[in-house]
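From the pipeline queue, job 12 of 40. The input is one protein chain; the requested action is below.

Action: predict structure.
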Amino acid sequence: MSPHLPGIVGTVDNPLRGIGYAVLAIILYSFLDGTAKWLVAVAPILQIVAIRSVFVLVALSPAVVRAGGVRALATTRPWGHLARIGTSFFALLMFFESLRHLPLATCIAISFAAPLFMTAASVVLLRERVGIHRWSAVGIGFVGVLIIARPDGEGLYSWPALLVVASSLCFALSQICVRWLAATETDLRILVSQNLGLLVLSSVALPFVWQPIPWTTLAGIAAMAVFLILGQLFTVKAFRSAPVGVVAPFQYTELLWATLIGAALGDPWPEFHVWIGAAIVVASGLYMLWRETLVRRQAAPTA
């Protein structure tokens, strides 16, 4: 599941470079999810989360030192960070668990529902105004999710598919928290607090799930941390190089990379209904992006 970094500000003058960075970021996120799918089959999920958090915190420590040490992490909004940590924690657990049971491409296709949840949640939590056009896109997008998840012969949706939907909801809520915190908190403070919180929460259960792991598994978890950090770095570079409307649509190419990586891991090729549903979700997401860009352009003051 690809992290997003809203609120990035910078120059907007090189669309091709921005697209290149965006594609690199999505490829890295795809390898991140593919590595997670391999790891959840050989190690406990909470152990993976805890060790990955340690690797990320170690990698971020030089940046913390340059920013002024522990003082740079002080915050006056602990409840916002706790909400971000909690929603991220459950999003990770449910997404990783779904990877045990579903092809990687199917999980990624369903996770595209996160922007739909973000639009709906922003109305309640951020009091943002959403018009009939975007509400219609949200409704159509959820129809696509239902097509991807497709009920079985008894008319019931599989619990792993519903787990991805719930994970997408938690992920959307965590991004709402980031948008809310971004007004006063630095990216470094948000990243460190999140990974420190994930480490604390996952460590509570470690005595009950811990098992010895080979060095190959440890290397895989370290690779996840590298993919995560580099993916976020390229995401920042992408949004600093080109407008959101140019860069954001390329996040949907993750379905292609997830399909190829999943096939390499032994996943079956996605069935036809997955592609149909994904096309509907992607179309609704692109329409919402276009509509939001149009509204902002119309609201912008003219020179």
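Job complete. Confidence is low (pLDDT under 50) at residues 4-11.
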